Amino acid sequence: MVASVRSWVANEGGKHLVLVLWLGANSWLFTETFLLYSTGQQYHYLYRMLGLGLCISRASASVLNLNCSLVLLPMCRSLLTFIRGTHTLPSRKTRRLLDKSKTFHVACGVAICIFSVVHVSAHLVNVVNFSVSYSDDFPALNLARYRGEDPKLIVLTTIPGVTGILLVLLLFLIFLSSSHCIRVSNYEIFWYTHNLFIVFYIILMVHMVGGALKYQINIEAHPPGCLRANQSSTERQGDELQQGNDEERCREEAHFQPHYPQTWLWVSGPLCLYCAERFYRYIRSRDPVTIVTVIKHPCDVIELRMLKEELQSSSWTVYCS
């Protein structure tokens, strides 16, 4: 029993440790962002307008930013091969862990698909709330142009809405072409569709430019829920009950500004690293390859023995069936 546990820890412990750390990072980021938007004073009026849809959409967006940055790293194959081949790695366990890079890539991809569904669903609720809960007191906070505006019109006439539709379509194509049956039957579809990730990341970095969600910037001069000079008596009674009859009055009107786009901060580093790695692979692919022998084996298996310069192992064999 003890020997089997030790064997499992030696062979699978590192992989499961990385999995636990990855799940912990996703859970912490989701919870932290959710609490920020539900309790943060700068989001008080926006939260009153949109409710839980705001918290869920932003929390899922944070998880998407994390996984969109991590999903590219396992695909830097030349870099991983270089790290695996160096003598600085402490043990063979670390090398075996690097061999699981494809599994981590798939896990990040599945997380992107799941939280994209959560993100889109929450934003659909937000769009409806923008239309129904149109704020006459804070016009700058509204995404809708008037109360009762058609939610479909809001989606189709805003940058976040249009780019969101494009992102969903691209992600659907990438996810569908990644299925096992398509990869086996027609690998070219999988390959070329997966390369749409460049377009996906460009649109992703533009997605937040529209400034759909705004936060308050003058909390000290206008504490959330303070009594405004032009506030109706019904609203004032409701706010007094909420504040415990606190008579604090606003010194000025609330001012809002859209969020500074942060997605590029998450993905620009891994994206540049991956592009540099792909360029390096393109340069290496131009080196000539010499086919030494071609051997046909039973069961329609063909053995190709090739030579290529500037490789640690200059002679290598490929089996095709």
TrEMBL record:
<keyword id="KW-0812">Transmembrane</keyword>
<keyword id="KW-0472">Membrane</keyword>
<feature type="transmembrane region" description="Helical">
    <location>
        <begin position="153"/>
        <end position="177"/>
    </location>
</feature>
<dbReference type="GO" id="GO:0042554">
    <property type="term" value="P:superoxide anion generation"/>
</dbReference>
<feature type="transmembrane region" description="Helical">
    <location>
        <begin position="104"/>
        <end position="125"/>
    </location>
</feature>
<feature type="domain" description="Ferric oxidoreductase">
    <location>
        <begin position="80"/>
        <end position="204"/>
    </location>
</feature>
<feature type="transmembrane region" description="Helical">
    <location>
        <begin position="189"/>
        <end position="210"/>
    </location>
</feature>
<keyword id="KW-0560">Oxidoreductase</keyword>
<dbReference type="InterPro" id="IPR050369">
    <property type="entry name" value="RBOH/FRE"/>
</dbReference>
<dbReference type="InterPro" id="IPR013130">
    <property type="entry name" value="Fe3_Rdtase_TM_dom"/>
</dbReference>
<dbReference type="GO" id="GO:0006952">
    <property type="term" value="P:defense response"/>
</dbReference>
<protein>
    <recommendedName>
        <fullName>Ferric oxidoreductase domain-containing protein</fullName>
    </recommendedName>
</protein>
<dbReference type="GO" id="GO:0016175">
    <property type="term" value="F:superoxide-generating NAD(P)H oxidase activity"/>
</dbReference>
<dbReference type="GO" id="GO:0043020">
    <property type="term" value="C:NADPH oxidase complex"/>
</dbReference>
<feature type="transmembrane region" description="Helical">
    <location>
        <begin position="16"/>
        <end position="39"/>
    </location>
</feature>
<dbReference type="Pfam" id="PF01794">
    <property type="entry name" value="Ferric_reduct"/>
</dbReference>
<keyword id="KW-1133">Transmembrane helix</keyword>
